[in-house]
Design goal:
disordered N terminus, globular, alpha/beta, 36% helix
Length: 402
Amino acid sequence: MSHAIVACHMQYASTTSDENTRIIFKEKIHVDKVEIRLVRLPLKEPFETSFGKIDSRLIFLVSVEADGLRGWGEVVAAEEPRYSYETVGTAFHVIRDFLGPALMSQPLASLSELARCFAPFRGHNMAKAGLELACMDLLARMTNQSLSARLGGTRSRIAVGVSLGIQPRPAQLLERADRYLSLGYQRIKLKIKPGWDVDILEEVRQFHPDILLSVDANSAYTLDDKEHLKRLDDFNLLMIEQPLEHDDLLDHAQLARELATPICLDESITGLRQANKALEIGSCRMINIKVGRVGGYLQALAIHDLCYSKGVPVWCGGMLESGIGRAHNIALASLPGFTLPGDISASSRYFARDVIVPEVDVAPDGTVNVPCGSGLGFDVDLDYIKHCSETVEVLNRKNAKP
Ligand code: NPG
């Protein structure tokens, strides 16, 4: 562990209980309005993974209001159930018909209380996270703190990498790798699948022998591919992310025993219990934390604290979020255990125009500033959001004062 990390450790009060001030609300929050909104943002270029290709992102924004203030969150689900079973459509239904009314049914004093209020509804972590994130932004705004400060963040800048989708030809991948390295990104992650792995790595390593390089398979392989996956050990990779089934821990543990390259889990870690088990049985040596996948900050912080206490590196994943989700990711990645560059690129990597002002920018040293302003620390561009909205629904608390 470096000196810088040890210094952070001393300042960081790591606990997952309600005692932790970062998750206690100063006053009870009683949400009286929830707005759910689908906003279509075109992508500058298609993004392809082992499970498919998208040309635009249907962004799911959530806002909650209480005491005249408004907090913003984002549901990271996609339009099709490929990365996870949740979709924009299921999240809309679950928030409108179950989680939204449950949230507004009582005043809440902590994120744990909020989690208990959502607990009767099984699964649907991304829908839950969207609301929880919005409540956390609202809370930070109420106490006039930055989200990062509220969560216990210790960094003023975070290191970032870029995720490069599968391309029609290797030359296009190499061009993008050059482009993002010259912009300063500290790590390149390549999406891989059978037929787009070893050969591609050979090409990239030929031109960039020393860069921080990782691969992400999004569950495209099985244990039968073990011998093939062992060939990835030749490329000095930082990690192999989620090579096997999305809900499997045992097969990953078996594969991990045969590979020199560390396995990092993403899809398989849907909460603290899975993180605990995965570390216990050796399924991975690193964890990609996404607030959406694990159901919100309460779980994300608990996984962070667990990994931090064990010296397991974590990093913040991305889901092609708009600036609102991106701002939440920046706040999370400012915690001390996030020692590896996250998938938090500049707004301009994906979108011609983002929904926040200023947009997220990556400095030439491959870092992103952690804003100090209240809440998200960015202004929400409501006019642009309205301009791009496809669907809006407002839920009101029944007995709210007018
Ligand atoms: O920069 O936000 C980003 C994208 C990072 O590759 C990325 N995300 O599997 O981690 C992933 C992947 C993803 C994107 C998954 C969209 C699901 C939807």
